[in-house]
């Protein structure tokens, strides 16, 4: 009953762990590295290509071919190891993990088992930046480099099993955490932060959906045997599977059954046993002696650290402080999309040089610019609207050359028709502020307002009876008539003078 | 599979013709170019088109490229005429474990005698005069043994000197491409063509290491001034050696003394443990290397087999011969988690053996320690041993003995595997018995890792001295 009720709620937020049944969880994360070439061959790593079009002799295990380590994969793995404060091993090497599977052309996977690249790192989750109740450190056991497998496609239409080896030999790193997770929020924050980190370090696209990041979860209750749940495709699936497995183990324990060490899969509703310890595959690990030992200088961690960008937490901390003074939620939003952050920072530096206050810049960027892109359903792209053009527009408003209303119209046009010039848009649509002296202007405004007042006696009546906000209707009419070329302030003063 | 039809057409056409007298060539290549000297290549070295490794599981396989060693020879104008018979995947010492049947020793007119293996076809094509030289591979004696049986020179260079790109692995830390020829000078000539760094082979010796070796060797040569110390390890003088074998070894030793060299008795105790280390390492690596033949990309692909597990099992059971299956099972046991750490222990033994070699030999092994202690003048430059325990038997007798005791065919390996485990250059020389015109048993000479050229030179001098 308990299980059923829990399963019916998809919102993990409502789930409470039972203090009598201590939950313990660790993660194994496979991350596809963004290298140009594969791990041990010179085939390009490209996805969504025609099946078996990105393969070389080694990838398809032609006998007599040998692996050659791609140094770019090593560099990217070292970046992550350094970012997580791991101890980079002076000597690491590759091993072979043997098992037969149609997507595994060599009959073994080249991985690091006995001597991984890096060990003992830390991943810090904080209350402030990760929406947690309290700070939490997840320990990293090790980071290793290994090959990805090909893909199996079950073709229901013609009843065939098809094998695509484009993904075979693409570089992966496997990161193994200690079983330090105590609740779902920590798992969720960890995954979110990890995705952001790898994206930020530019070592992986960071997507769970495309399989660029794949997660296995180990769950145990009250220090019992751990159960591994493999191939979970999204954060939602991971949470659902963890809740199900925790609850299942409790229910087993309540019936005085012992939890078996086993591997289970997730079918969308429940975890299902795929292998028990007894029929586990013996991977017959042994050294891959063709690949030389990776000897690393003891300084390499420090050298790589110097090349790393600032980490997301530090970036957020910087953005909420002077000179940016962004709200934390906006800072987080920008940090999550590195291209957007750069766009913002470019704009910020141009405008601060022209003494535009940070608050105005932030308001422009977050509300006006992002809003305008959003309204047109176009994804934000500095290519469409370069920061220099944007700055020019904002400065026109600041210098009173156009009104905010006109600027909004221009902004929409700039996004909708990329490459158009601000002045041209203003000219073609007759949006320039009228070049008249103030007496003439005052007279023209008075005439227009008087005309509107005369034509709308009922509205005027309402205002006189105390409904002061109804003046906005008259303002709107005036703005419409003048296409926003005249500031609304002037109209408001005039209307207030006329309607007494 | 990628096939380069045009290139294949220009280079030659593979025909599975009727076997030659000795069943030594399993696919003939009728060339349409290259007037150079003829050579053959063991069929575990890739040439565009058919390359079977003597196995049923590769009977449908077409190689998309040529091995580096083949390409280097063809670029020099040598003329590839055929792929030679071998024990399946190089596993055997008699060439009786081939999907194409055994090759036959050309030296014997009175019956079908074993060529030795696994490069039996290569030795037979050279001994039978079908070509000037042949490329073979040596994992634990596979060049030296057939060369010895067939009365020709068989040279296994230092591991890493000749490229393995395009060489189908049996045991990758031991597999070495080598040369079989009728004269030592021919071996030297071909070695000069092939002794090149290959960036495609991660185990190829770097240009720097090659330079370092030649610097040390030059220094030694000038210190020695043509007079070398030759050691004979007592551990190779096994009980089973026939008197004829002992006499031949004495003859070689006397000739070396006669030439002005020193000959000394030495001891390398770890040699006695080599055989078990060798079979542990070779079968473990073989089990791993042969995992790729899963019936999906290689093998006949029996359509009646249902499910991935049955496809793998079915194809491997049908595609591999008995000896290969035996070694895969042995190897998989070695690397299984139940068996402990045999592979690691065997590797330690191997290192220990290399240490003992290094302690005996004058110049250093540049892969392990690079200091040349030139004052240790008493150390050896080369080492002498018999290649085989006995002269070859008939194929029938060999099979009968093997049937009685499976391990029978492994015993000779004590004489050849230590040099494989240590990767040192070794040559088998066809030294004649008194009054005989042909040799059916060779004598091995070997030296320090990298010392290939000096080894070939002293071999050439020795054989000329014996003329």
Automatic annotation (TrEMBL), chain A:
Protein name: Glutamyl-tRNA(Gln) amidotransferase subunit B, mitochondrial
GO biological process: glutaminyl-tRNAGln biosynthesis via transamidation; mitochondrial translation
Catalytic activity annotation: L-glutamyl-tRNA(Gln) + L-glutamine + ATP + H2O = L-glutaminyl-tRNA(Gln) + L-glutamate + ADP + phosphate + H(+)
Entry function: Allows the formation of correctly charged Gln-tRNA(Gln) through the transamidation of misacylated Glu-tRNA(Gln) in the mitochondria. The reaction takes place in the presence of glutamine and ATP through an activated gamma-phospho-Glu-tRNA(Gln).
InterPro entries, per database record: Asn/Gln-tRNA_amidoTrfase_suB/E (IPR017959), Asn/Gln-tRNA_Trfase_suB/E_cat (IPR006075), Asn/Gln_amidotransferase (IPR018027), Asn/Gln_tRNA_amidoTrase-B-like (IPR003789), GatB (IPR004413), GatB_Yqey_C_2 (IPR023168), Gln-tRNA_amidoTrfase_suB_CS (IPR017958), Gln_synth/guanido_kin_cat_dom (IPR014746)
A Pfam family the protein falls into: GatB_Yqey
Bilayer-spanning residue ranges: none
Subcellular location(s) per record: Mitochondrion
A GO-annotated cellular component: mitochondrion
Family classification: Belongs to the GatB/GatE family. GatB subfamily.
EC number: 6.3.5.-
Native organism taxonomy: Eukaryota, Fungi, Dikarya, Ascomycota, Saccharomycotina
GO molecular function: ATP binding; glutaminyl-tRNA synthase (glutamine-hydrolyzing) activity
Domain Asn/Gln amidotransferase: from-to ranges: 346-499
Automatic annotation (TrEMBL), chain B:
Cell compartment(s), UniProt: Mitochondrion
Pfam families: Amidase
Organism for this UniProt entry: Candida tenuis (strain ATCC 10573 / BCRC 21748 / CBS 615 / JCM 9827 / NBRC 10315 / NRRL Y-1498 / VKM Y-70) (Yeast)
Superkingdom, natural source: Eukaryota
This enzyme's EC code(s): 6.3.5.7
Family matches, as PANTHER family: GLUTAMYL-TRNA(GLN) AMIDOTRANSFERASE SUBUNIT A, MITOCHONDRIAL, TRANSAMIDASE
UniProt entry tagged with the keyword Protein biosynthesis: yes
Cellular component GO terms held in the UniProt record: glutamyl-tRNA(Gln) amidotransferase complex; mitochondrion
Active site: 42 (charge relay system), 118 (charge relay system), 142 (acyl-ester intermediate)
Family indicated by similarity: Belongs to the amidase family. GatA subfamily.
Keywords, ordered alphabetically: ATP-binding, Ligase, Mitochondrion, Nucleotide-binding, Protein biosynthesis
Role: Allows the formation of correctly charged Gln-tRNA(Gln) through the transamidation of misacylated Glu-tRNA(Gln) in the mitochondria. The reaction takes place in the presence of glutamine and ATP through an activated gamma-phospho-Glu-tRNA(Gln).
Main location: mitochondrion
Assembly notes: Subunit of the heterotrimeric GatFAB amidotransferase (AdT) complex, composed of A, B and F subunits.
Name of the protein in question: Glutamyl-tRNA(Gln) amidotransferase subunit A, mitochondrial
Entry's Gene Ontology molecular function annotations: ATP binding; glutaminyl-tRNA synthase (glutamine-hydrolyzing) activity
